[in-house]
Design brief:
By secondary structure, the chain is mainly beta. Helices cover 5% and strands 69% of the residues. The protein has one helix at 2-12; strands at 29-40, 50-64, 67-76, 80-92, 95-112, 115-134, 137-155, 158-180, 184-195, 212-222. A 10-stranded antiparallel barrel has the order 1-2-3-4-5-6-7-8-9-10. A hairpin with a 2-residue loop joins strand 7 and strand 8 (158-180).
Amino acid sequence: MAASFASAAEHTARPGFAAHPVAPEFGQWTLALGLGVDVLPRRLVESEWRQLPHAWVRSRAGAGKGWYLSGRANVVIIDDQFQLGAGWGQAYGGFAWGLHDHVGVTWGTVGVEGFDATAWALAHSPGFSVAYPLRAVQSTLTVEALILHARHITVGEVSLTQKGISLQGASFALTFESPVGSRNAIFYGLAAIYAKPDYQLWLAFSDAEARQLYPRFFVGYVF
């Protein structure tokens, strides 16, 4: 048991993880590239199932004393998001926990014959994470609030601007990360998104108003 905790602590002290709360060592950084898909239920978009593939990038740089700087970008079919932030994490044997906060913008466009729409918003995602090793695999649960500080939507010649802070929902992600060599890792997992139908542009034309639950699946590699 002691040996496994020592091994886990060694893993969390080095760079090579995308979701684990412990930061890379000072001056070191990680780059994670991933692919995923959101599966939107019929109640969200025009009473039909929608599968939305997306690609994303995550990068973290160790700032010392458990802190790290973070940047992340999501590219979906009709919506893009870019955020910058920071986080702090601490390990106790095999167990680790941390806090993080990211602020950025989300924007997107839809253009079809006879219909054009654009949208942008200021997005804020504070959260926390807890991690524990399952043999050689690090498992991390990440919980984030989905907050919009402002949003502007244009459909044709009609514009709508929403000001103020709005809690759109929450995200619950479970990530598994398997080390590859001394500095890299493969990660995979799933998330449950509980949010208002119009949280992002592709949900803006939903025929439902209450918050809905939908899954996200993802896989990627950490360099």
